[in-house]
């Protein structure tokens, strides 16, 4: 009897378990056959925002229910229920896998290819980038850096140029007779800029180009001496709250336009804007020569020292004209050989024949083969004994340099440089100056002394046969082959790939960030490569000019930049740059900090950027994620409004974009 009861109880248990299993089977089939969807609220959603519902992560997946039931274990509150092993969802029916969208410049075989896509920016997304992750104070977080907020420098430093205003170093010079005091003498380590250079009282947003060519605010460059000294020569006038620039110069008081017409009439082969695209104006005054060449498609770099007329370059930059503070004294200028199709000197107060003509030999190095030197000065036309002797010395020196005096008319003389070395090699033995050593690198310019020798022209003819403007902008120049690059691919492919990359990137910036609405005029690319960024600005019809900076830590691509018809300069970003404060509207740095952080203090570079950036100006830093936190903190410590944005490659890309705005008025 007892056995029957036990047997009956066992049968009931088995029957109950079977019914329960069937119930679970139909329950699971009902919920997991696609006819129903489990709904969950997102527990990770920010409580300040509206909640949303989402499909169960198990939707459209199949599971072995008995296996799951048998392996179920009880979990303590401290432990979460372990997830089942991930099961890949079945592929969509009748839909082929999407094609691979190539990003970058290498194809699937690792070969450089210019057939790639950069990707478009969605303006609606870009406008909202950075919202929610911007802070107004410097914080410490994971991988963050504590940066003390920088204070303002004294008002006496409003025009401070660190490497040119180093009174202590200049006072220790053994000699200043050759202009050494106007060259670079940077502060020693630990004595550099550690504060924010303030604007002058009453500073206003600069007058936009092209109006700025003819007038600027007095309060932005509050120095009247140049107007007092040169007002009678039609350089510059004061009119109420503005400086006005009539367009004249010491040697062309009737205006730069008439002067340029005269030069082109004297020698039509000059062909401004076609054959002559890049020019250098030495001792430029307020840069009216270069300002009026802009409308003729000529980029002129205007240079002058910070001398008794110390603010002339500041006026030039405030006008929106390419300019740098530079002196031709004892070191090479920071531009490559064969950089300029035309070099101009109008009453520039330089003794070209001193020290065996070493200064004119530097001009010869900078002048492109077949290029022109235009000299407008008293020795050209005045018949006084001293001036006539200076003219004879100049003719004698230029003859030994194999320059051809192609035209002399009125107060203007024009020489042309030879196209090759044949004239140099056919001179009488012992003729001075001699040719430079075959091992001399004419493009080596960083703190290199002037050399009293004639720079050899490349035997391959590199530099002499650049195409006319504007086709030269995108045409790979011959000197591209002389650039030392660590690459197995063609340099021309690198050149074309960089050009296409920046063309599409800048096109995206124009569409998404409305760059054409920005009042961009003076732009600096702090790590320029082949100049693709500057070329893209031109192709997108942005009315600005770009100074392409090539860091000394990388390959010297300056010859290619000038051959494209662009402007550039060599620089070491561990040191300050030779320009006045508040001179650039936009600073662009691509991959600069991740490279230079091993050599330079990043705060030093950022403080220098703040010094040369105009109030209201912008900074775009495209760099590695690894440096973004520190750059953000430094930017905030300087009072910039900073935002980190994703590139078109998405939030998980190794690069980010840091956009910064410098407020017009600092608190």
From TrEMBL:
<dbReference type="Pfam" id="PF03141">
    <property type="entry name" value="Methyltransf_29"/>
</dbReference>
<keyword id="KW-0808">Transferase</keyword>
<protein>
    <recommendedName>
        <fullName>Methyltransferase</fullName>
        <ecNumber>2.1.1.-</ecNumber>
    </recommendedName>
</protein>
<dbReference type="GO" id="GO:0008168">
    <property type="term" value="F:methyltransferase activity"/>
</dbReference>
<feature type="region of interest" description="Disordered">
    <location>
        <begin position="70"/>
        <end position="96"/>
    </location>
</feature>
<comment type="similarity">
    <text>Belongs to the methyltransferase superfamily.</text>
</comment>
<dbReference type="GO" id="GO:0000139">
    <property type="term" value="C:Golgi membrane"/>
</dbReference>
<dbReference type="GO" id="GO:0005802">
    <property type="term" value="C:trans-Golgi network"/>
</dbReference>
<dbReference type="GO" id="GO:0032259">
    <property type="term" value="P:methylation"/>
</dbReference>
<keyword id="KW-0489">Methyltransferase</keyword>
<dbReference type="InterPro" id="IPR029063">
    <property type="entry name" value="SAM-dependent_MTases_sf"/>
</dbReference>
<keyword id="KW-0812">Transmembrane</keyword>
<keyword id="KW-0735">Signal-anchor</keyword>
<feature type="compositionally biased region" description="Low complexity">
    <location>
        <begin position="71"/>
        <end position="81"/>
    </location>
</feature>
<dbReference type="GO" id="GO:0005768">
    <property type="term" value="C:endosome"/>
</dbReference>
<keyword id="KW-0472">Membrane</keyword>
<dbReference type="InterPro" id="IPR004159">
    <property type="entry name" value="Put_SAM_MeTrfase"/>
</dbReference>
<feature type="compositionally biased region" description="Pro residues">
    <location>
        <begin position="82"/>
        <end position="96"/>
    </location>
</feature>
<keyword id="KW-0325">Glycoprotein</keyword>
<keyword id="KW-1133">Transmembrane helix</keyword>
<feature type="transmembrane region" description="Helical">
    <location>
        <begin position="12"/>
        <end position="32"/>
    </location>
</feature>
